[in-house]
Amino acid sequence: MKDVLSAILFCVCLALGNQARCATLPEACGNDQVKFDVTTQKGQPAPAPPEAGKAQIVFVELTYGLAVTVRIGMDGQWVGADKGDSTYFALDVTPGLHHLCASWQSSKSYWDRLVSLYALNAERGEIYYFLVKPVASQYFNDFTFAPLNEDEGKYLVKISALSTATPKK
Question: Over the stretch 27-40, which tens digit does the pLDDT of each residue have?
Fold first, then answer.
């Protein structure tokens, strides 16, 4: 019976596509015990272009009034977090394949398991924009983690506050 339940849980996780709600975080994320404090600053200039020989990933969070913190992981390590409506941060990365993870940070363990994944083959000199959009209600909690086109990304950065994340102690 236990094997049947395990198989059903595995199939449900697969059926959810890139939205995973399994008991442990995927390898692309970071250590689940790491939580972030996030500060934001409005009116900051757009990120500088990526360093020579690198690519850049910009993560923009839209929550429409919710004070939700979303952790961003890459290749098994947390690289930052966004919090609140219209916030962003940028990350320079080496060219090549990177496995990205967005995980809803919450004091409620179920919400911590709301995870979305994306594999990105970053090319030297390119800038990639990703939307992180949590949705919470009395009946439904989920979020979108998806690439944006350059025009959308630049506009959202322009109207957003810069996020700075530090791990909680």
Answer: 899 988 899 999 99
